[in-house]
Amino acid sequence: MDKNRLVIGLPRAMLYYRYGTLWRTFFRELGMEAAVSDPTDREIMERGTALAIDEACLSLKIYLGHVAALAGQCDYVLVPRVSNFGFHRNMCTRFEALPDLVRSVFREQDVKILSYNVDELEKKSEKLAFLEMGLQLGCSLKAVHRAYKLAKKAELAEYKARVQKQEALYKQEGMKIMIAAHSYVAEDPCMGKTVVDYLKRSGAVPLRADITDRDGALKWSRELSPTCKWEINREILGGIAQHERDVDGIVLLSAFPCGPDAMVNELIARRVKDVPLLNLVLDSQSGTAGVETRLESFIDIIKFKEGKL
Residue 63, exposed/middle/buried by CB under 10 A (0-12, 13-18, 19+)? Predict the structure, then answer.
């Protein structure tokens, strides 16, 4: 580690799974080091659970564990505030309150918070937020402009490649199971990765409702709900509406007690009629054996429905 370079800590949780490429590239182009916390394990989960209130969702508990893991390992920990991308395009309130929450939880520890604010309803775009953050870090406006441009290009290229790879999976042979979940649930080793790995071992093709053309998904989401206001949930709805006829089953995967997911998953259950659904809600006590038993039964139901059992 170069002692003369600023080190920005990136908690490997929540919005990291959406913006990780953007963040890493941005700080690298500014000559800084991005230090990403290790993948979630039981220790990180338990550490975060001890720091959070009981009513916090599992995703937030895990996030606090990752922040704690970065304490003393970097100059700043990046904790953005992402409120909305315009009318009816809100993020969960946890993302709006996250910087204040983290400052409060770690107020007696040596954790310096670096943040930026995205709030399109208040004329605060992502680009403006990154420019302000770069200037706050002492970089020139020209350098920050360049870093954001390159970071955004890298983010879009990486995501486009993921969408193209997934679209190819729909053409593969075999049972296809769509996972409807936030990326930070689906990709976390202590949450969704268990589900994905089991489906693969069972010979199924796991697909993600949220990995889809985002602008198109927002339009498709109106097929299932014209009033849903949460951005990521709308993307998931759009992915389901677009591909529900291409899959054999859908797993509704969420972290307890996620409010938006509780409402949206009930909506999906009521409006998606011709595809078998499994609702899996994970908490810190969820064991892999129980999850795998439910998935095994779900796969058997699909096989029975298709006359393969």
Answer: buried
Which residue type is seen at 150?
Answer: L
The CB density around residue 286, as the number of other CB atoms within 10 Å, is 17
> How many residues comprise the chain?
309
Angle, helices 16-29/141-169, rounded to nearest 10 degrees: 140
- Residues in Cβ contact with 99 at an 8 Å cutoff, skipping those fewer than 6 apart: 79, 80, 81, 113, 115
Integer Cα distance of 150 and 120 in angstroms:
22
CA 107 to chain centre: 26
- 249 forms beta bridges with 177
| Cβ proximity of 216 and 163 under 8 Å | no
How far apart CA 61 and CA 83 sit, in angstroms, is: 20
Task: Give helix 58-70 / helix 93-105 axis angle, nearest 10°.
Answer: 40
pTM: 0.94
Per-residue model confidence as pLDDT tens digits over 274-296: 899 999 999 877 667 789 999 99
